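Loading example: each entry is read as two labelled lines plus one structure line.
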Amino acid sequence: MKTALFIAASTVLLILACAGIATPGQPFTATPPLPITVMAAASLSEAFQELGSQFEAQHPGVRLEFNFAGSQQLAQQLAQGAAADVFASADQEQMDVAVQAGRVGDGSARIFAHNQLAVIYPANNPAGLLELPDLARPGLKLVLAASEVPAGRYSLQMLEKASLDPAFPPSYKQDVLKNVVSYESNVKAVLTKVALGEADAGIVYISDAYDQVGQLPIPAALNVTASYPIAALQDSPQSGLAQAFVDLVLSPEGQQVLVKYGFIPLIH
Amino acid sequence: MSAASPGLARRRFEAWQLLSLPFILFISIPIIALFLRITPADLWATLQGEGAQQAIRLSLTTSLTTVLITLVFGTPVALQLSIRQGRFHRLLDSLIDLPIVMPPAVVGVALLVAFGRRGLLGEPLSLLGISLPFTQTAVVMAQTFIAAPLYIKAARLGFSSVDLELKKAAAMDGASRWQVFRFVIAPMSWMALLSGCVLTWARALGEFGATLIFAGNFPGRTQTMPLAIYLGFEVELNVALTLSAILILISFVTLIVVKEFLHSRVETALAVNDY
């Protein structure tokens, strides 16, 4: 009985081990792929995944591992010593956190893209929103990114600007904030709550506003431009490859991918 | 216990017992590390903060509401499972177990597609003027979904352990179903019910994933302690660490108090049985 159990257990283990090594479709290589960890703002998810595949195609034997989350979360993880090779933040503030923690060399971060805000609503527009002032309508369900999140901070800046604009009542920001039902931990969570139709509106980046949600125009003078810095971490064990990924993001090909996903490129 | 049964007392230390050391260390080191990072001054400062107080208050009210709801609606389920057997009841039993193994994020999504505005029941609910997501009710629902099964399982075991003959005897003496439950089953299984309640309460207090998805995060309304810790970690690490420590202290002290209390009751019961 014991022997039978032992044989059964070892067989299972062996199968599991083989399954682990020989992933279907991949060549049986003796050396495991070299992982490069990229910590990137949640808003970069789609664009960076495509850039990642490009990078892997250019560098055989390298596997990119992404950690997408609110930049503030990533910056804290880096400050607490999380191992990574590249950090791409949605604002300079969170990059500075990584610099202060000694993970990114002072002055080594470079802006690689810009973004702007978009007010989105579910496809069927349950609240019947037509223009920006409608966000202050009492009873509306609005979802924002938390003020700790870059997108949340930019949203507050935009509302602040609107309150100072003669076209809006001075209490605009206050009235809009009264409608907030949830402060999300990253911008993609805002998008999800709106796309699911649970909220009447949300503020995200233009690059997040897909066809599944509608969009309210924000006057150019009121919009806030987000700037995204990127840096190879100075303690990266693969600093060459980390820098190569940064270079790809900054290259014309990389910029093209970012444009495809709604980001505003650098002017070359 | 040890005094009553000298044969069990002072069992010689054996080398194999060292095998439990790695796990004990694995559990205690992170908890100790957390407490080493905070100072009493931090603790005091955090407790004075409006945000932390709101989160603690909200966590206590929602988790206690969850326990009450679980008692009212979970007890019949536990009773049913304790007296009936068969395919249907085994299925029901597995259904009750499901929330324990479901990832909380999945629970949050499931609650959203069931009770959300566009969910399965969204239409009828909105006709009644009810909107659940982003409310305190949503927090309680998320906690109940995840934590109630712990009570139901404990209560079911407690009910099952009541001797069938006793129930029959009471019924033969003319006790109604309610009287059998009230005067026979409940008094004999209350310790199981209490420990089930405590487990449910502690689990509800720690609920995070389902709450974040179904109820969102709004200070004072849906931001419970775990949510405040999650967002606080990114801004003020001290606040997050202190709130974590408070959460652990509350849970640990409660667990110890209840275990001690139950233990002393069990000892009294055993002592009585000895005579």
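The radius of gyration of chain B is 22 Å.
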